[in-house]
């Protein structure tokens, strides 16, 4: 109390007049009303703000500021006011969306590319499956060495592993004959699947009416393959009865469909090569999707060298 | 931590301030006056914490620059507080540099004489804290804490904005604010405001 009186008549009258305002919270005029005090050190904050915020706006200062404003306004047209970095106080939230939008777009592009690649890979495989060809139906023939390595990486998961293709192609590309290994990898599965179907069909014929079959997972698969429980019979008849059965299909299918399959495989793997490059790119550095796209464009025409080129793109980007 | 309270309160006027600034940027003089009246109390308080008695002159210099560069500014009301605080701070630091060459007693040393006596309770301190006493109190803090407290409490900036004004990391400024306020609260509550401490805020550049 005593201090309040003691400080009042001090030299800085303007500053001191409002000290009662500290108590009443009304001393600062309209822009410093009583403040909410959500825990912590509210009293201190309120106290300091009330004591330190200048009380009222001084007319003299305002007059000078307005004069400066007018002067600046006159001069303004002549001078282009460029916003410097330190003049940009827009909230960060306002600037952020741009960045996130760009990121989202890159991600979208990358996923589209990868999806397309996966689809292409499946398409290549699917075309081959149609003739149910044996081992030969894989993509080796046209697909030159570089591309032929890729199947190793691709089939298991339809997304090409980004890392794998990079080191492999250059090495293999020197030895075109080595397209054998990839051949071995995929077909067995498909063949097995075909045999499975036939086996299931036979089992179904034998066990039809014995109830329990219906629960087996294999049976479920058969149903799915046939397109419905009712269709199973017809499906099986087709599988077992028609000459396109297991034995013939391997040979005959190769004869006619083989070339087709080969072509499909080549295309598929060519695209894959491109895609693998893109994928690696996308993972290595964001925003380089565009590069990946270029890489893809390069690769498709010439599968052999393009493949290795695609493989090298990510390498170059890595550092 | 209670640090949200002050900015929120000031933010109540940030919409009004933002609109006024936008109109002033179109050349509306009355709007500029509104912005001045909204910003000046906090700005002057901050500058006073930095340079003491010369605050009015320094603030006037700052307003010259603010008026001149208003066209460059981009942002809302809260941004305008931060922008003006940055300008005022630069003017204040310039002033202090000049003063260092030609030293003279600062206001803070005068104000120490005006300090109220020791108080046993926070309430009592709250009743009697004058501007001079508050300045002296703030001046007992290390400079980074003092500035952080002033920017938050007096200018009404939030943590990130205060950090930008000070050119520091938000985390560091948050910590400084909290420590400073805690220390001030302790002094106000327990020790009273006559605590001896370094009163070199204005000179510790």
Brief summary:
Chain A has 319 residues and is an all-alpha fold.
How does this model look, in words?
The complex is a heterodimer of chains A (319) and B (205). Chain A is mostly helical and 319 residues long. Chain A is 66% helix and 1% strand. Chain A has a domain at 103-187 and 250-317. Chain A has 15 helices and 1 strand, in the order H-H-H-H-H-E-H-H-H-H-H-H-H-H-H-H. With 205 residues, chain B is mostly helical. Chain B has one domain (5-197). Helices cover 72% and strands 1% of the residues of chain B. Chain B has helices at 5-11, 14-25, 29-51, 55-69, 77-101, 107-113, 122-128, 131-139, 143-155, 159-166, 170-191, and one strand at 74-75. Chain B starts with a helix and ends in a 14-residue tail after the last helix. Classes of the chains: A mainly alpha (319), B mainly alpha (205). The interface between A and B is large, with 68 and 84 residues.
Q: Which features does this protein show?
A:
heterodimer; A: 319 residues; mainly alpha; 15 helices; elongated; disordered N terminus; B: 205 residues; 11 helices; transcription (chain B); sigma factor (chain B); transcription regulation (chain B); RNA polymerase sigma factor (chain B); RNA_pol_sigma-70-like (chain B)
Write the layout of secondary structure elements.
The complex is a heterodimer of chains A (319) and B (205).
Chain A: H1 2-7, H2 13-16, H3 19-24, H4 42-52, H5 59-75, E1 88-89, H6 92-131, H7 145-153, H8 168-173, H9 180-185, H10 187-207, H11 217-226, H12 231-241, H13 246-284, H14 289-299, H15 303-317
Chain B: H1 5-11, H2 14-25, H3 29-51, H4 55-69, E1 74-75, H5 77-101, H6 107-113, H7 122-128, H8 131-139, H9 143-155, H10 159-166, H11 170-191
Helix pairs in contact in B: 2-3, 2-5, 3-4, 3-5, 3-9, 4-5, 5-10, 6-8, 7-11, 9-10, 9-11, 10-11
């Amino acid at each position: 109390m005593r201090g309040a009186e003691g400080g009042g008549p001090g030299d800085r009258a303007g500053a001191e007049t409002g000290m009662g305002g500290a108590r009443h919270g009304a001393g600062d005029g309209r822009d410093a009303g009583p403040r909410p005090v959500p825990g912590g050190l509210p009293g201190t904050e309120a106290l300091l703000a009330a004591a330190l915020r200048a009380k009222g706006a001084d007319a003299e200062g305002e007059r000078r500021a307005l004069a400066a404003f007018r002067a600046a306004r006159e001069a303004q047209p002549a001078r282009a006011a460029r916003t410097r970095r330190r003049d940009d106080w827009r909230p960060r939230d306002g600037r952020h969306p741009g960045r996130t939008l760009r990121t989202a777009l890159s991600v979208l592009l990358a996923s589209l590319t990868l999806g397309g690649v996966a689809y292409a890979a499946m398409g290549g495989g699917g075309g081959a499956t149609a003739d149910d060809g044996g081992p030969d139906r894989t993509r080796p023939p046209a697909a030159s060495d570089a591309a032929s390595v890729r199947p190793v990486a691709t089939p298991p998961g339809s997304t090409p592993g980004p890392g794998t293709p990079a080191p492999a192609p250059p090495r293999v590309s020197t030895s075109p004959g080595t397209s054998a290994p990839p051949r071995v990898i995929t077909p067995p599965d498909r063949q097995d699947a075909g045999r499975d179907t036939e086996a299931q069909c036979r089992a179904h014929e034998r066990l039809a009416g014995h109830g329990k079959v219906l629960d087996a997972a294999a049976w479920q698969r058969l149903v799915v393959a046939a397109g419905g429980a009712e269709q199973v019979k017809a499906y099986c008849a087709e599988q077992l009865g028609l000459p396109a059965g297991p034995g013939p299909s391997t040979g005959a299918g190769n004869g006619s469909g083989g070339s087709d399959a080969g072509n499909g495989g080549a295309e598929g793997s060519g695209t894959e090569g491109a895609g693998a490059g893109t994928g690696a790119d996308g993972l290595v550095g964001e925003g380089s999707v565009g590069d990946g796209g270029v890489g893809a464009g390069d690769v498709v025409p010439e599968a052999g060298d393009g493949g290795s080129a695609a493989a090298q793109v990510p390498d170059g980007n890595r550092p | 931590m209670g640090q949200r309270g002050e900015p929120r309160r000031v933010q109540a006027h940030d919409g009004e301030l933002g609109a006024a600034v936008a109109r002033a940027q179109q050349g509306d003089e009355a709007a500029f006056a509104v912005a001045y009246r909204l910003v000046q109390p906090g700005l002057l308080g901050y500058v006073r914490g930095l340079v003491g008695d010369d605050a009015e002159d320094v603030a006037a210099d700052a307003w010259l620059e603010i008026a001149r560069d208003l066209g460059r500014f981009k942002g809302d009301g809260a941004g305008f507080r931060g922008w003006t605080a940055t300008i005022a701070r630069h003017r204040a630091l310039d002033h202090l540099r000049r003063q260092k060459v030609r030293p003279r007693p600062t206001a803070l040393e005068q104000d120490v004489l005006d300090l109220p006596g020791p108080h046993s309770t926070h309430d009592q301190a709250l009743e009697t804290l004058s501007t001079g006493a508050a300045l002296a109190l703030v001046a007992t803090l290390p400079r980074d804490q003092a500035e952080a407290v002033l920017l938050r409490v007096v200018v009404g900036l939030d943590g990130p904005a205060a950090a930008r004004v000070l050119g520091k990391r938000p985390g560091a400024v948050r910590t400084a604010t909290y420590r400073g306020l805690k220390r001030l609260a302790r002094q106000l509550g327990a020790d009273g405001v006559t605590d001896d401490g370094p009163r070199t805020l204005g000179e510790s550049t």
